Fold glycine--tRNA ligase.
Amino acid sequence: VLSEDLPGSIAKISFQKSMRWNSEVMFSRPVRWILALHGDLVVPLIFAGVLRQVLGSVAFSFFPLCLICYRLVPCPCQQASGSSFCCLIFDALLLSLTFLMTIYSGNTSHGLRNTPSATLRIESAESYVDVMRHAGISIDIEQRKKTILERSSSLAEGVDGSIVIQSGLLDEVVNLVEAPVPVLGKFEESFLMLPKDLLIMVMQKHQKYFAMTDRNGQLLPYFISVANGTINEAVVKKGNEAVLRARYEDAKFFYKLDTSKKFSEFRNGLKGILFHEKLGTMLDKMIRLENIVAEIGLALGVGEDKLQTLRDAASLAMSDLATAVVTEFTSLSGIMARHYALRDGYSEQISEALFEITLPRFSGDVLPKTDAGTVLSIADRLSTNKSMCSWEVLLLKFDPDRNSFWRIPDKRTKISSSSWLDSLVGLFGAGCQPSSFSDPFGLRRISYGLVQVLVDNKRNLDVRHGMGLAAAVQPIKVDARTIDNVRKLEQFLVDKGISPEVVRSILTERANLPYLAAKSAYKLEALSKGELLPKVVEAYSRPTRIVRGKDINDNIEVDETAFETKEERALWNTFLSLRSKIHTGIEVDDFVETSSQLLQPLEDFFNHVFVMVEDEKIRSNRLAMLKKISDLPRGIADLSVLPGF
């Protein structure tokens, strides 16, 4: 069974970037060997498409040449005697080479190349960890992580510093090395004049180094790299310092280039970045953002005294995309906008909003906290998407001679998750809807991020209204009603541990108000564990089932003079007393508590009153009353999907 299943399991392992062999087999890196043991027995399996150790590599190098010679050069023995004996030998040779091109499982593994025990024989699966440990290989990921942290902290203490731990970088480094050896390095203090975030990003992203700070959080001119196995520490340190110095010289050049101009001057450079062929440039997009940001702010409850800050921030939003630093280091979008704005004397509120417009940038990232940052982030998402969704926009420069944009080679920039409203509406209108197989513009993640910002920041925006505002300023015709955030909100709430039935119940009625819907779902989930909600659900189910499928005019008035029983009058009077208390904005727990007053009147009514009498007037009157009662949960929750209905 293992022999049959393991090759398929290996093939199913997916990576962000993979290499391909024989046009079929894909893996992240060349597979040199497979160790497959069950106890002391080798599990026989084949994984095709990669070379087998050194011999296979040599064979593969000569394989194309052999094949060409075999096909083009006449066989001498066949010319002399008419036989083809040597060709049969050659066929056997080619078959052998093909055999060598397939990798087979065995009981051998390999240590680091610069160690004496480069080839290791594993006698049994149980001895695997010990054999690798004696060869200097740390198999346990947590142990490697512990080694890196402990040794790095010790090195940092030696220069009165502490390492800056970024969990993603730590996880990456842990999986890049098998025998981690932290090395302390240093760079020139003159580079500390550059922004701290820029220096750290260059270290982390490009070199996989850990930065170091003092007790006050100030960056120190030291770093820690992690080597693999036995090394000449002095040589490694010198090489790492030289590489980082070159990186910092580049960063210094780009920063000086940017600071030679005012930050506001970069806004015009957005004309050279194409957002979408149907939606214009990034400058066009930012102009749209300016046009809706005030209305979105008011809809989110922002005071009129803060609207000017909103407008000022919107006028500078994403201008850093045109800077040299962000063009080279795209993950600094928003961070450099805040830095350049503060440097040019803009207020803390405006500068922070220029950073928060990019939030969240990834799963688990911080969310915008200021009013201006929250509004800009939401408005942009409802109107595109920046770094959170990780889709890329080519940097294009306008050529007036050709009257068209042309691509700047190898330069791409990530559009941040800021203008969500504009992005959702515009890209949907441009026909960029995600399919079941792909989502190249990250629209699903934009929707999820939009929901997350609204819910976590307790902003009760009517998303459909916001999309209508964004649709009105698009350069193409957009029907905002076609955009559906319901499924993303549903996923968000289910991820929080709320039962799917409760989530569907709330979203059927309150999907356009993500914060209210989330709050209602939490409360309804808690109520579902009590005794009152099931009784209320059952009570509403009786009138709903009776009127379901019947043609009853919603506007028909109930005639009190047509009542024949005291139970009818009691139920109607109870309904009248509740009608003004139950409305679309009521809290779910208040709705359930208020609806409990209907329990006894409904019980008495159905115990003593027959609805479907022959008299049409009385029958219609009773159905009309029950229809109005069954409609009370509208705009609050669809009780029909809950258990017990």
About this structure: DSSP finds 26 helices and 17 strands in the chain. Confidence is low (pLDDT under 50) at residues 49-63, 77-85, 384-418.
